[in-house]
Amino acid sequence: MTIPPTHLTSAPGIAYDTYRPWTNWGGNQTATPAFTVRPRNDEETIAAVRFAIREGLAVRAAGSGHSFTPLVATGGLLIDLSGNTGITGTDKARRRVRAKAGTPIHAFGDRIWADGLALKNQGDIDKQSITGALSTGTHGSGIGLGSLSSELRWVRLINGHGDVVEICEDQFDRLRAAQVALGTLGIFLEVELEVAEAYWLQETITYPTWDETASTWDHDIDNNRHYSFLWCQAEESAPLYELPTPDSQSMVNRSYTKRYNAVHLNEAPTTSHTEGARRDRSYRIYPGGFMLPFHELEYYVPRENSLPAVEALQNLIRTRHSDQKYPIEVRWVQQDDGYLSPFYKRDTTSLSVSGAPGTHYFPYLRDVDALLSDFNGRAHWGKLHFLTRSRLEALYPEFDAFLAVRREFDPHGIFLNDHTRALLA
Ligand SMILES: Cc1cc2nc3c(=O)[nH]c(=O)nc-3n(C[C@H](O)[C@H](O)[C@H](O)COP(=O)(O)OP(=O)(O)OC[C@H]3O[C@@H](n4cnc5c(N)ncnc54)[C@H](O)[C@@H]3O)c2cc1C
What we know:
The chain has helices at 42-55, 109-113, 130-135, 172-179, 210-215, 217-222, 237-240, 282-285, 306-320, 362-373, 389-395, 399-409, 418-424, and strands at 16-18, 22-23, 30-31, 35-37, 59-62, 77-80, 87-91, 96-100, 117-118, 152-158, 164-167, 187-194, 196-197, 200-206, 226-232, 254-263, 279-281, 295-302, 328-333, 348-355, 378-379. By secondary structure, the chain is α+β, with helices and mostly antiparallel strands. It has a domain at 85-197 and 395-424: 2-Layer Sandwich (Uridine Diphospho-n-acetylenolpyruvylglucosamine Reductase, domain 3), CATH 3.30.465. The strands form five sheets. The protein has an eight-stranded antiparallel sheet. A five-stranded antiparallel sheet has the order 7-8-12-10-11. Mean pLDDT is 95; it is low at 1-12. It binds flavin-adenine dinucleotide.
């Protein structure tokens, strides 16, 4: 792999917007930064951060704005990374890919397949920027597959001193902090991920009753590369997440289950577009995006506790929140060792629920939070949650180790906003 050296030039002229409103995908977070810049290359990003340091402005980065939490909001300088994208190198022998920080996940597919490589796993959409996804621990499903963050092997960033630095694989503390950093170490310019040899996937969609879903619990988790399901409490549930369902089949108390298993390249696969039984290159099996907005919370419990946790959540919906119609999505993620990774040293089951935009869903989400706290639940950093500093300290054994790296990289806190300062100052 040829990695070009870093050339720092003097600050080029950069176009700044002033007081341009910013809104996230879900429409529940807005901000009016004093300055917004959309760099076209690393030099412009570096110049923008140094400008902010000189002027005493706080700085936040925006990926594709798919987080529901106030991670991006700032009144200072907003750096929109969507203009600095592209795969910068691949190394098939080491199964590595480097990409500019703003590269969307969907841009990896065809490009790295051509070099015999593929992302090991993907989530429910591929619209996020790679660094936005890394920064919050974004994941797909599969008990043998880690989050995207767990695949981070190298990063080049500009820190709070205005210095461009690299974090390499032998810098364990820094790399483990960088894996899930919420934009608080600095602005990432380029990242390197470990990926897989190119592979095909076979999809199998089924619609079991809840009793059937529960009866094959461990078997399904352990015997599928990707296993996940969405449990529907009401007839209205499936359409809210645009789930295709069989004609004349009630989905009440049934699951829409997804199983994706690898088909080896030497088995000469043929593509199938049959709904529920597709066979294709890995990245074409994963969904692209959602058209309908929703506001989501996703909590993570240890795999061992997961069936009782899901049944307790179903009971909460039936007894106290029957007006809430979005399905419960259930997925699995392999443990890793990122300091702020929700999967830190525990194989995890994820449970997610959503509220309808414009409705009063917070009492429901608060009850879900209280319920899953009893299961030692951690939370998706990019989805609605109620974690406080003291709860984080109890949930993350290496919380202080993360803070030490954050303070080293950004001693004056220029990369903090109100949300992250309360949690991570
Ligand atoms: C419809 C939908 C589906 C989703 N599906 C999944 C899923 O399947 N699995 C899952 O785990 N999550 C999922 N999410 C959540 C989503 O993946 C995360 O919120 C992710 O962080 C969004 O990426 P983004 O590019 O939009 O980043 P943003 O939301 O724009 O930013 C996220 C964080 O990254 C930081 N950041 C961005 N770029 C940089 C940079 N260059 N340097 C430093 N920091 C940076 C930001 O400052 C912020 O802290 C979904 C969200 C939506 C709306």
